Structure formats: C-alpha cells, structure tokens
Prior knowledge:
By secondary structure, this protein is α+β, with helices and mostly antiparallel strands. The chain is built from 7 helices and 7 strands; from the N terminus they run βββββββααααααα. Strands 1-4-7-2 form a 4-stranded antiparallel sheet, with no helix packed on it. A hairpin with a 2-residue loop joins β5 (62-65) and β6. α1 (85-107) packs antiparallel against α5 and α5 (159-174) packs antiparallel against α6 (180-193). The chain is elongated. The relative contact order is 0.14.
Amino acid sequence: MRYYKFLGAGQVAPFSGQAWSTSWLEVPEVSPCERGLHACRVEDLPYWLHDELWLIEFDGPVTAVGHKVVGRRGRLSARVSRWNTVTSAAFARACVGRTAAHAAAECGDLDDGSLTEVAERLLAPAAGDGATVAGLDPFTGVRELALRRQEAAARSARRTAALVCGYLADAVEMATVYPVPALSYVAARAAQARRPDPAGDRHDVERRWQAGWLVDRLGLNSGD
Length: 224
C-alpha cells in the first residue's frame, strides 16, 4: 500500500507546521487528528489538496481513520512532480465542469444544452491544460448562464435545479481567486444537493470521480 501527503510549499505540513524531509520523523504516540504522522490513500487525495504532493514511507503499522491514515514513524519518499500549478489549474477547471454537468442534469428541459456544452468543454483534457495558455478565459459567460438557469428554475419551482445552478455560479466566481480545494468541495456539494440517487451517495461518487481524475492525470497506481 502506498501513502501520500499534500504539503505546503517547502515541504511544510499545512496544519501542524511540521517540516518534512527524507529523514525519519517519529512521534512517541499516536492519536488520530491530535498526535501522529498523518497521510492518505489515493481515494483520500481530493480531501487534502495542497501545493506539493509526496509519497510517504512509513516504518511500522498505520491506522486508517476516515479519509486519512496515521502512523508513528515516517518520511518523505519522492515528490509527485506531475502535481503542479498546471495540473492544479486543470483539476480546478474540471471541478467546475463537473458542477456544470450536475446543473445540466437537474435543469433538464430548462436548458437548451448550453450547460452540457460548458461541462464537456471544461472537462476536455486539451482545453483543461491549454485554455489559459492560449490567453482564453474558459469561464467566459458561464456564471451569467448559471444565473439565468437559476432564475428560470426558481420561477418553475424547481428548487433543486436552482440550488445546483447557484453552486455553478459560485464555482465560476471562486475559480480564479480560491485555492483548488474549494472547487473540489463545491463540486461535491453540488452533487450532494441533487435529487437522491438510489444507486449511491452522490457526494461519495463525486469524490471518487475526483480521485480517479488525480490518479489518471498524475500517473498514480489506482490499486495503491
């Protein structure tokens, strides 16, 4: 089993302020969320996004608690270089695209296909990597579209559709000023706000989609 850790710039843990390195770190005892060396599995990655992504090596047992693992002795193994400002921005755009897809699904006949087009464009890998490089704003007109659909949904008493369109408008507004974890959170909340799916919890499904995106784009092992 491989374990990962997101760190701030300079290999600093964002919550504890602990500086990590390839030298072993050790704590006398473990108490999840309080004491110990915390890391995550691939399926947990969307919950802990930050500047740098590292492989972590543990010496000894680890305990899984919620969306993380905790151990007593560990060190950095190797940096995942594919997680950088380019892939981070691409992931943020993909999360807005997913939010647009949720809005399109809830709007149904209130939309003329424009929301679906937005979702497909933002989720396209080539557009995700190259839109800003080409000097294009991938979000032009998207917030205005979301607000129009929100208004139409509200007039039709389609409260769920209006709510999800509101999430899309918020996501676009946040995309250029908030860190990437905020966009993944909004996408997950938009999924959760949709009508229930008997096949499973939409929030969890969305987080799994996000983990799958990261596994694919960063070249990770999905079996980790």
